[in-house]
Amino acid sequence: MAILRFLLSFLVTLGILSSPGASFTPLEDREFTDGEINVIDSDNEYIKMEIADVGSDIFNPDAEKGGYRYGPTLFVNADGSIDAFFACPGRGGQWDWISYRHSPDGGKTWTDEKSVLQPTPDSPDFYSCCDPGVVKFGEYYYIGYTSTVNVNGTDNNVFVARSKNIDGPYEKWNGNGWGGRPEAIIDFTGNPDRFGAGEPSFVVLGDTLYFYYTWLDDNGRETRVSVADATDENWPATLEYKGVAITAPDSSCDSADVKYVDDYGKFIAVATNQRFTADSFVDVFVSDDGITFERSYAMKTDTAICCHNCGISGRPNGHIRLSDGVYFAYAYGDVWANWPTRLSKVELSLIAAPDLSDIENENLNVPVTYAEEDLYANYIGIVCKPAHYAKSVGDGAFFPEILLIEDSMDTVRLLSGVTFEDYDESVVKFVGTLAVPQGVGETYVTVKYRDMQTQMFVEIQ
Predict the structure, then answer these.
(1) What 3 state SS string does 129-141 have?
(2) 352 shares its domain with 434
């Protein structure tokens, strides 16, 4: 099987054989056409969330290499389909990428996976793009994400990128506009030995964008909230800090995913607590104004032990309508970086007072199921290794190493079919896959193979 797999990979590399992932077609823009909803009139001020079915795993790790798809953002579309974004392992020295998949049938089957956002070499996000929070308003999809230049994975900041197509390509906020070298929209100013800022989520309400993110410093974990003008194309420049939305109940509570429930006229936030332990559960928070949240419910029954990094579904603008159906997803498992991802349906209801009693019940002890080896690999992206080439004119021409990445995170070196775009030809030129230094300078280079792309940074001294 290993020999056959290698042969198939080699044939794809030469362009003789096509892989299923190579024919990915961007999805059309979906719109909900139903009108305004009548908000339920009730004296009950809190929200309860219960598992409606135990669900199933939509990702399983490799038995030998492990793997993960955590921190999901889930869109429920007008046709009942689901769009999903995850943090997945990176390659070429990059820790995490953001990947995308589509389910046409409510999570039963899924399209091939595609990497849609990767770090930019030699930039403030060069280690990772992880913890995706995704929203759509106006013409664009926006992915908020976490990254750092600290090799210890601490001192994180929050970044954002946008695209008119759900599967990209995405252009990153550069501090003044879109495209080029990324700059953070939230800079962490605390102890650089702590996690920092990250794990964003979004809700659009009217013309206001509510932007939520983790702030984890010496004082513990907070979910902070800023607002921005959703009508302004350069809305990151309009962000206004509004305060602490959620103070984590304890140190084992992780990132909050926030939505707005149209039926209730309330904001809801979900976060796993006692994460990575046999006593894990889900904390539910509620807010009337989107600025200050209260603890509302604890959901433990029928969630898997050792759960973490969860997400609740909504429409692309961050709204939940109960008639759409509501989904909940999370990673779980007791072996580090070896985590399945589970998708379940949930039911929401109003209750009169906070209820944490479910913490006393039992959750699921689900054995980790490993992925079966596929005969035909799904290729999710490409990467340059290294992503930063420092050369001199006297070094002469060189071949950048460009790797095709399988969904199992195995790699195949690309020898043909690669194109290079958007670079300064006074610094470097390309003849096929051969890079020829031209003169002193530096430039970013967009590298493309079929519908996949990445960036490398070339510095000629």
Answers:
(1) CEEEEEEEECCEE
(2) no
